[in-house]
Amino acid sequence: MGDIKRADFYDGPAHDYLGYWKGRDYEHAAERIAIDRLLTGRHFANAVDVGGGYGRITALLPRYADHVTLAEPSSRQLDIAARFLDKGIERVQAQAARLPFATGSIELVTMIRVMHHLPDPAAELAEIARILTPKGTAVIEVANLGHARNRLRRLGRGIPTEPVDIRSPENRHDDEIPFVNHNLDTVTRQLSEAGLRVERSLSVSNLRSGALKRVVPHRVLLGIEKAAQPALARMRFGPSIFLLVTH
């Protein structure tokens, strides 16, 4: 992530990111479905999970890469990762805008649930482009400002082109981490400016609803999710869009 304040947010004892994922089995499984759909049948020499916290997504990558590294700015999250991840996965403390990898050295980069902390992701996207090999691949998740429910709320007004901070006014303090949703057209342009192009997209966590999760069996939710991800991507339906990008 972009700076020390953002790392400090996840270092503090008040923020239990591992605990945050308890009760979010559907969201985790939906993201795993997306990762598998985008990467199945491909294999890489090395992969880096940028801003991966304690390694929730990093743990999925050894099936797709010979050598996997978690690059995370928070020392506390890295300490948790040391217990959560297999010993063969490397861990380095690093900001997403200053990654300690040689230019053109990484075949696969993932950056999941990081963009919503980046009101201006230009430096981070440029850094991903820098470290990727000429034919490298990245999977980047974007918190979608134009998801279906938001489009209904904003009917007749359109979707802002700039990121929108979704924190309540009382929680918007300069010393706290931003939480923004992005316009996908703007992100596509920013990726292009970094030298990256979108090859494929998936709409993810399409059934993210506490009410649905209480009444619909987990396996049924995931069956619908798996079937819907490609089709709903064309509508930019879901709150989370996974982008497969290349040079």
Automatic annotation (TrEMBL):
It holds the Pfam family Methyltransf_11. InterPro entries: Diverse_substrate_MTase (IPR051052), Methyltransf_11 (IPR013216), SAM-dependent_MTases_sf (IPR029063). Residues 48-140 form the Methyltransferase type domain. It comes from the Bacteria. Keywords: Methyltransferase, Transferase. One of its GO terms (molecular function) is methyltransferase activity. GO terms for biological process: methylation. Belongs to the methyltransferase superfamily. This is Class I SAM-dependent methyltransferase.
